[in-house]
Specification:
Blueprint lengths: L11 H26 L11 H4 L5 H35 L9 H22 L7 E4 L1 H7 L3 E3 H14 L3 E2 L2 E6 L2 H7 L3 E3 H7 L4 E3 L15
Antiparallel strand pairs: 1-2, 1-6, 3-4, 4-5
Helix pairs in contact: 5-7
Length: 219
């Protein structure tokens, strides 16, 4: 029959609106019931109580254990690969022995030779400290008839400095005075030529085939 809240006979438009509203209400009511019966899994209130309160279930514990084992296996595999790579690098490039530098080898060789010949140089027949005879011209400068060649050169340089016979512009050049002119037979010379010119004024005391050894004393 006609609903009681209609004061008069309803029009077809009113009846259509009434039925449409009724259908919408029924659909909404059904949707609410379905939502309550099977709520979406994404709702935080539908998760297991063990998960909500920080207590993982058995499936979650098993998954965590599997993940931890997988990470340990990966780490162990990486360590093995790194060790194999290091071993291959060490085998490919072995450490070569440290070669002795040429300078160090030459220095050691020079020291060895000096040690083996030092006695001969100091005390042998050809030693630089061997006493030699001095010519009369050179005796006027060094003051002794016999003297070792090293001492002769030392006394000669002392005489040159004492009499200021070095060229002020070139200290290696020697200006000869009357005494030096008798020895060197020139008006000037230098320290390199001087040692050669001294050879004929230094004679060995014993008759030998070789003259006394020469030495150069630098400034």
């Amino acid at each position: 029959g006609v609903p009681h809240f209609f004061s008069q006979q309803p029009t077809p438009q009113q009846l259509q609106s009434y039925y449409a509203a009724s259908q919408q209400y029924q659909q909404h009511h059904q949707q609410q019931q379905q939502h309550r019966a099977s709520p979406p899994a994404s709702s935080p209130y539908d998760a297991p109580g063990s998960f909500r309160y920080g207590q993982p279930g058995e499936a979650q514990l098993q998954r965590l254990v599997q993940l931890q084992q997988y990470q340990q296996q990966q780490q162990h595999h990486q360590q093995q690969m790194a060790a194999a790579a290091n071993a291959a690098t060490a085998a490919a490039s072995p450490r070569a022995p440290v070669a002795e530098s040429p300078r160090g080898a030459a220095s050691a060789r020079t020291k060895k030779e000096s040690a083996s010949t030092g006695v001969k140089r100091r005390g042998g027949p050809g030693g630089l400290n061997k006493i030699c005879g001095v010519s009369p011209e050179l005796q006027a400068i060094v003051g002794e008839p016999t003297m070792a060649r090293t001492e002769i050169v030392k006394q000669l340089w002392a005489y040159i400095r004492r009499n200021d016979l070095q060229d002020p512009n070139n200290k290696r050049k020697i200006i000869c005075n009357d005494e030096l002119r008798l020895v060197f037979e020139t008006d000037c010379t230098d320290m390199f030529k001087m040692n050669k010119l001294l050879a004929k004024h230094i004679k060995p005391l014993e008759p030998t085939s070789s003259p006394c050894p020469q030495t150069v004393v630098m400034l």
